[in-house]
Amino acid sequence: MPRINKKTLTTELAKRGFESIAVKRELPDGRVEVEANKLHPVHVEAGESIYAPVPLSMSVALDARGRVKSIDGDTPKAAAVADAARYIKTLRDSGQLAGPGERAPASGLTHQIERDEQGRQVLRRRRFSMS
Amino acid sequence: MLPVDLDFGDDLNAFYDRVGLKFFHGTAAGRTVFSGESPDVVCHELGHAVLDSFKPQLFDAASIEVAAFHESFGDMSALLSALQLPSLREEVLAETGGVLGRSSRLSRLAEQLGWAIRQSVPSSVEPDCLRNAVNTFFYRDPDTLPTTAPATSLSSEPHSFSRGFTGAFFEGLAGMLATTNTRDEAALLQVSQDIGSILVQGIRAASVVPTFFSQVAASMLAVAAARFSTQGYEAPLRSGFVRHGILPPSMAVAATHAPERIVAFAASANESKTLPTLQLSVAEYGLGVPSIIVYAAAEPKRLEVAGAALAFGAAPSPGEDQAAKSFFEDLLRRGRLKLARPAKGAAEVVRAAASRTHETHTHELRREGTHVVLRRVRIDCGFAHR
Lengths: 131, 386
What we know:
The structure holds two protein chains of two kinds.
Chain A: H1 6-15, E1 18-26, E2 32-43, E3 49-62, E4 68-72, H2 78-93, E5 97-98, E6 111-115, E7 121-125, E8 128-129
Chain B: E1 4-5, E2 14-16, E3 21-23, E4 25-28, E5 31-34, H1 39-54, H2 64-82, H3 86-96, E6 108-109, H4 111-120, E7 131-132, H5 158-178, H6 185-205, H7 212-227, H8 234-243, H9 249-254, H10 259-271, E8 279-281, E9 291-294, H11 300-304, H12 320-333, E10 337-338, E11 363-368, E12 371-376
Parallel strand pairs in B: 1-3, 9-12, 10-11
Antiparallel strand pairs in B: 2-3, 4-5, 6-7, 8-9, 11-12
Helix pairs in contact in B: 1-2, 2-5, 3-6, 5-8, 6-7, 7-8
């Protein structure tokens, strides 16, 4: 059974597009349970898609050298994607979401839509606010 | 090192942004309010930073409940931080008469900031504070809620939606204090530290899923059962979560039980299908009896009730079993059922704020021959919502 190197595993998963990676535990079959966020397209109003960090839990199989061999559960579940869509709507309706190109969020804004290097619109939290 | 800016600009707000903590000043009704002067506001923001330090995947997660939990954690941090002050513990116990579950200067969060916001948007905050941890909000699927609402209602907006979990947590805290022998400020300090430990361990164990509230709650119950069993914290915590709908009673019980209990629960669910109409399976509540008899005459209105449809007439009525079960579970949630000899781990809801001078339950389970029967013992006309 390969020894888990959390740093190596995290780096490998980050290269595959996962964010906020947390290695939870080693499963009895030698796989590793990992929680992470994955940028996933969420369809919002008027056919617009925004990539949102959607949480998921996956199990990762490692090869003998401790590198990622396969991943189960690397696609967010439908419920989580629906939750993300609802979340974006809530942010917009409550005035907490700034659009792309807008300046630093004003009062009450917590999130911003950014263009990443691939040209995608990505939802990013900028801060937590008191109210 | 987390930089703090005590006056970052003009706003009635405060922020945590992974760079630091930022506080503001704002003017309302001719008075200037500095959010950084409020311990509640400071500890709320610091709470975000603390949670972010050990559960960083929550920061960016696009999930209503996850975001709402972050806000709840901020408020819970403010509550528990305040309780580290001896003078505040003494004052709150005096103010509430020792019944911590009553609204107090502890439960009323950010009173000054709430006042300032109220001057311009009265409906967006509580009448006497920003948010109150003593509340009666009951869990709803956030998908069924409006995205914004006045402070009197829940919406899916994270600060608004957070209040259900905070309310359950605070009720659990109050109930934990009630389990102590002395119920004094030293005991309050101890339970505040214990529930903080339970909370953090519960969060660490919880999976990040859309239904994050229930994940954390179930994990907290498991922690309480495993590590604080001698203190008897399970029951009051469970009561808080059940009364606020964070967990259904059956799951709240199952959360603290070994897997074999869960298997037993599944078996009892099958058993209930063969029971007569008004014989209710209640095995999942851990009452020590597999089923009870509910007499229609005991609760005629509740068992025969049908709600009005939006258009006209009555809405489709649930079956008798469902209506009776709903009623029974409602009694459990509201802490209105007295158990003669509750089994260990029973889903008994302890009402932390219930009077010590008289009983306030409305129903009892009585053994009559070979059956256990649900009987009303009184009608409680008390106005208190607790």
